[in-house]
Design brief:
The protein is an alpha/beta fold. The protein contains 14 helices and 22 strands. The longest helix is centred in the first third of the chain and has 25 residues.
C-alpha cells in the first residue's frame, strides 16, 4: 500500500499548485521542499521580492523626478535601503506563510527536506530528523531552475552578483554592469538605476529582450536609454577581475574585434536560467533528460518512467511561474482521472520595467517567417485620455490578427500597466476571439484598456481616436 497518491518534489509555483489542486480533487498528497519556505525561486528570491523593490524604487523615482508636474512639492529626499529591503522581506514572508496555510487547509503534507527519487514509487527526503521514506503511486518533479553561470565570471554575491544577490545589496552601488539584456537583468537593473546607480547593460545579441516583438524591443531600449540606462549590444564578456572596490570586465565584440575593459562597483550576471535537478537521483531512477539537462516529458507530462512526471522550468519551454502553475493544475487534474489542457499559444509574458512590456501569441517576425497573412493594428498611449491624465504616455498596444478570419494571433504592449492590460487579449485568444470581437466590446472610459480596444479596431478596420 502507498502512503500517498502523489508526492511532489519542489514547492515552487508549479509544485505547490499541483499539490493543492490534487488535494482538492481528493488525492492524498505530500510536497517535499528543501528550502524551508514554500514558493520556490519565484516567491523567495525572484518574482515577488523583485516586484517589491521595483515598486519601492518606482515610487522613489516618482517623488524625485515627477511629483513637481502634479504640483506636489517635496523637500530633499532621503533613501533608507534597509527599510526598503525589510519591506521586501516582509512581503516574501507573508506570501510563504500564505502557502503554508493553504497546505494545511487542503490537507497537503509538507515535508521540509531535500527529496530524491529511489524508484518510481519511492521518494526519500533528507529532513532535519533524518531520512524519511515516502511511498507513492505518482511522483511529480517540480524542482524549477537555477542561475545560469558565465564562464570566467565567478559569482561571489558581494561584487559579482546573481539575481539573488542583487536583491540584497545593503547600499546603492555607484555603478553596476548587468550582463544580459533579458527580463531579469533589465528589471533589477531598473531598480538600482532608479535609486542612483549608473547602470550599463552588456548583451551578446544585437537586441534587448530577444524573444519579443521587434518594434517593442526598439521602443523599450529607447525608453530605458532615456531613463539613463546605457547599453553595449553585440558584446561578449570573456573575463572578470575583482579588486577591493571594483570589478574589471573584459568584453569584446561577439562577431570578433578588439577587447576592452569596463569597470563597475558591482556586476549582475543575468544570462538566463538552467534546470535544477541536482541530487534528484534521475540517473538511478532511469529518467531521461535532454542534452541541456531538461527532464523529457510527453504531452501528459509523463517522463519515460511510468508514474514519474515533471512540470515547470525543469522541463523547459517558457520559464515562467504562471506557465508552471497551469501545468501543475492540469497534471493534478489528469492524475485525478480528469482531462487537462494547456494552450501554450495563450501564455502571456511580462517585463516589469516602467513602462511595462507584455506579450502573448506570435510576433510580427514569427508570422512573416511562417508566411501567415496578417493585419497589424496599433494605438499609442499618447492618444489615450487616462494615460495623459496619469502622465504616463510612453508606448503603444499592437494587435495582430489573421488577415482572412480576423482571429487574434498575438498582442504586444509597451506602456503603463501592460501586464494587466494583456489579460483580456489572453482570454480572447483562449476563446478564439477576433480583433473585431475585442474592438466592439465596451471598455470603461477613461481607462488605459481603451488602448487595447483601439488597437483591436485598428487591426480590424480603423481606430476611432486616431
Amino acid at each position: 500500500m502507498s502512503d500517498y497518491d502523489v508526492v511532489v518534489i519542489g514547492g515552487g509555483p508549479g509544485g505547490y499548485v499541483c499539490a493543492i489542486r490534487a488535494a482538492q480533487l481528493g488525492l492524498k498528497v505530500a510536497c517535499v521542499e528543501k528550502r524551508g519556505a514554500l514558493g520556490g525561486t519565484c516567491l523567495n528570491v525572484g518574482c515577488i521580492p523583485s516586484k517589491a523593490l521595483l515598486q519601492s524604487s518606482h515610487l522613489y523615482e516618482e517623488a524625485e523626478k515627477h511629483f513637481d508636474a502634479h504640483g506636489i512639492k517635496v523637500g530633499k529626499l532621503s533613501l533608507d535601503v534597509k527599510t526598503m529591503l525589510d519591506r521586501k522581506d516582509e512581503v516574501v514572508k507573508s506570501n510563504t506563510q500564505g502557502i503554508e496555510f493553504l497546505f494545511k487547509k487542503n490537507k497537503v503534507d509538507y515535508v521540509i527536506g531535500a527529496g530524491r527519487i529511489e524508484d518510481a514509487n519511492t521518494v526519500l527526503a533528507d529532513t532535519k530528523d533524518g531520512e524519511k521514506t515516502l511511498k507513492t503511486k505518482n511522483i511529480v518533479i517540480a524542482t524549477g531552475s537555477d542561475v545560469m553561470p558565465l564562464p570566467g565570471v565567478d559569482i561571489d554575491e558581494k561584487q559579482i552578483l546573481s539575481s539573488t544577490g542583487a536583491l540584497e545589496l545593503p547600499k546603492v552601488p555607484k555603478s553596476m554592469v548587468v550582463i544580459g539584456a533579458g527580463v531579469i537583468g533589465l528589471e533589477l537593473g531598473s531598480v538600482w538605476r532608479r535609486l542612483g546607480a549608473e547602470v550599463t547593460v552588456v548583451e551578446f545579441l544585437d537586441v534587448i529582450l530577444p524573444p519579443l516583438d521587434g518594434e517593442v524591443r526598439k521602443n523599450a531600449q529607447r525608453i530605458l536609454q532615456k531613463q539613463g540606462m546605457a547599453f553595449k549590444l553585440g558584446q561578449k564578456v570573456t573575463g572578470a577581475e575583482t579588486t577591493k572596490s571594483k570589478v574589471k570586465l573584459t568584453i569584446e565584440p561577439a562577431k570578433g574585434g578588439d577587447a576592452e575593459v569596463i569597470e563597475a562597483e558591482t556586476v549582475l550576471v543575468a544570462i538566463g536560467r538552467r534546470p535544477y535537478t541536482e541530487g534528484l537521483g534521475l540517473d538511478k531512477a532511469g529518467v531521461s533528460v535532454t542534452d541541456r539537462g531538461f527532464v523529457e516529458v510527453d504531452h501528459d507530462f509523463q517522463t519515460n518512467v511510468q508514474g514519474i512526471f515533471a512540470i515547470g522550468d525543469v522541463i523547459g519551454g517558457m520559464m515562467l511561474a504562471h506557465k508552471a502553475e497551469d501545468e501543475g493544475s492540469v497534471l493534478a487534474e489528469m492524475l485525478a482521472g480528469q482531462s487537462g489542457h494547456i494552450n501554450y499559444d495563450a501564455i502571456p509574458s511580462v517585463v516589469y520595467t516602467w513602462p511595462e512590456v507584455a506579450a502573448v501569441g506570435k510576433t510580427e517576425e514569427q508570422l512573416k517567417e511562417a508566411g501567415v497573412k496578417y493585419k497589424s493594428g496599433k494605438f499609442p498611449f499618447t492618444a489615450n485620455g487616462r494615460a495623459k491624465a496619469n502622465g504616463d504616455t510612453d508606448g503603444f498596444a499592437k494587435v495582430l490578427s489573421d488577415a482572412e478570419t480576423g482571429r487574434v494571433l498575438g498582442c504586444h504592449i509597451i506602456g503603463p500597466a501592460a501586464g494587466d492590460l494583456i489579460s483580456e487579449v489572453v482570454l480572447g485568444m483562449e476563446f478564439g476571439a477576433s480583433a473585431e470581437d475585442i474592438g466592439r466590446t465596451c471598455h470603461a472610459h477613461p481607462q488605459l484598456g481603451e488602448v487595447v480596444k483601439e488597437a483591436a479596431l485598428a487591426s480590424h478596420d480603423k481606430p476611432i481616436h486616431m
